[in-house]
Amino acid sequence: xxxxxxxxxxxxxxxAKVAIVAPSGPVPDERLDEGLDVLRGWGLDPLVMPHVRGAxxxxxxxxxxxxxxxxxxxxxxxDPSVSAVLCARGGYGAxxxxxxxxxxxxxxxxxxxxxxxxxxxxxxxxxATRLGLATLHGAMPGALTFLKDETTRESLRATLFEPESVxxxxxxxxxxxxxxxARGITLGGCASLLAADLATPNARPNxxxxxxLLEDVGEDDYRIDRILTQLRRSGWLDxxxxxxxxxxxxxxxxxxxxxxxxxxxxxxxxxxxxxxxxGHAAQNxxxxxxxxxxxxxxxxxxxxxEPALI
Length: 310
Fold this sequence. Notes:
The chain is 31% helix and 22% strand. It is α/β, with parallel strands linked by helices. The strands form two sheets. Strands 6-14-13-8-9-10-11-7 form an eight-stranded mixed beta sheet. The longest helix has 13 residues, at 29-41. It is globular and about 50 Å long.
């Protein structure tokens, strides 16, 4: 099966209500409050769901119980006054609650903007495979990068309000790992989450026809090797048309990581761009998922055929 473009949501307008959810880890109050102020400064009306400021009694790495986190996201999505659902932060836990979402109700509510990254990769995959909805791999209002970096904030703001202005995605850090040019459908996110998603309900059979986005954080070079080797051995990378690599923060010296990336991905016969500027680094560009795009490894750019939102 070859990937095709997914259904896009509508862009946001000033005054739009955006629901804030915490599908994974707990969110420090001061960071969330600062992020909410940024959203209000954009003219948005943030609605914080009930368990965003909570913490699981037994597992402090979770914002709340699996059922409560799933209920928050389902109710946010099904609220007809809500135009977008933004994840407050990543962490860990999305895989625990993804199968508890009311997918029938979410499907009936129709397409909306959904944004987040890191652990939220599990939800991006679920929205794509279960509903055929395009999503945004991008900054979260409770994440430090969103609070500290203007480029990160502006990338998300422009994508939400003026998506035609950010159809060419690149940073000056980007470079060519494997030359070439390819067209495909964007997918991906955090590499370890993609590997963990294999053989789970509604997982993709492979990335055929895709422009694969990969990044990660806190993984030693041998662990990145293991993750990419698993994706290769499982056949999940069969038919991929191009690969865009983001950041590998806290993964050791980049030259060591780069050697692993070249060794594991260079032999696939597809163009590969490195350091494109998304993920856990100091700057995090918003990358639309489920969009038709051209990856030009020689120019180190990813160009969307259409705006991320309609």
